[in-house]
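Task: sequence in, structure out. Protein: sphingomyelin phosphodiesterase.
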Amino acid sequence: AIRYLSKRRQERVRLIGDVLRREGFDLVLLQEVWSERDYSDLKEKLGGRYPFSHYFRSGVIGSGLCVFSRFPILDTLLYQYSLNGYPYMLQHGDWFCGKSVGLPRSRAGVDMGVTAALSAPSRQLHAEYCREKDAYLPHRLVQAWELAQFIRHTSKAADVVLLGGDLNMHPEDVGIRLLRGWTGLRDAFTEATRFEGCEDGCTLVPNNCFTVKTELLPFPLGIRIDYILYKAISSFTVKCEELKTTTGTAPGTDIPFSDHEAVMATLHIQRQGQAGGAALGTAEPTLADVVTEARTEVGVGLRAAQQQRFSTGRMAVLALLLLLLQAVAALGTLAGLAAGQPFPKLSFSLLAFLAIGVLLFATGLHLFHTMEVKMLQGTEEQMRMALRVLQERP
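Result:
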């Protein structure tokens, strides 16, 4: 369905392929490539320039993640976040795409012996939708925490880690501060020697014809939610020499490549003693405060999930009681207790079907919110342990 809902999709895919082939990047991380046919078309078009590629499959409609590389991809790993929104929020659809982080491990610059672990998040962490009343903030914080843990535990064999994608968080948001502080990742926008592109590095801007203008009314310049983050792990250093974003429409056309501006970074990697940024918390001096703030928000989400679990459980019990009462009434009729009165079969059947439907729906939601509670409890416990370690550090 997404193939037909996306506006001028084929034209934009062709334009993206043209610019990638022309620019000749070393590594390309794409997201929201929902159609595998589009990926196949890009792969065929870019095969000469990027001989190595991979498409990450996840969820019902797919993660939309793919990577193209000039260097050999040694292996890949996909991790799907434990919380991805709500299946009954059909208008948002985050749950159905199975938000994930894809990890292609590549050997870049063989003559230098650099192995770069490149983590490319899914289409986004969970979308915000409403900043004033953000019901998805606990889910997005769980995803940010799991992404940070994923990076820490999978980057030990790498020399350089790159993280690129739409994180759906503003630079000052607690999720970004948690991710950067816990991993030591550096922001290419703030570290770049030269910058060229949209003002303040914004990647979701009001003058893009594919954006929802009402969502950006509080931000006349736009917002920066797409990032390239990086750090060196072993005896290498990484420096961002230049960062650029696309601006407006694609050359020679009346449409942009996407609803987001693309982010392009030129990184200089060299071997030089001990690499900076490898230690926990170097990017965030007040990491304990950040973890505390994130844990508080997760706790708020946990209490809301527990309330939802209780409400759906109560609904399922009431539906079950209604079915039992109907069963008693039917047995009474069969036993001749109400032989002198006609039995309303149609009304009885409709009520029974309604009760069964409510029972199944409420039971499904109760099970979902039970799993949500467990995931939030697990994350809250992990944050509590991390906070204890941070507070015990000298």
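The chain has a mean pLDDT of 83.
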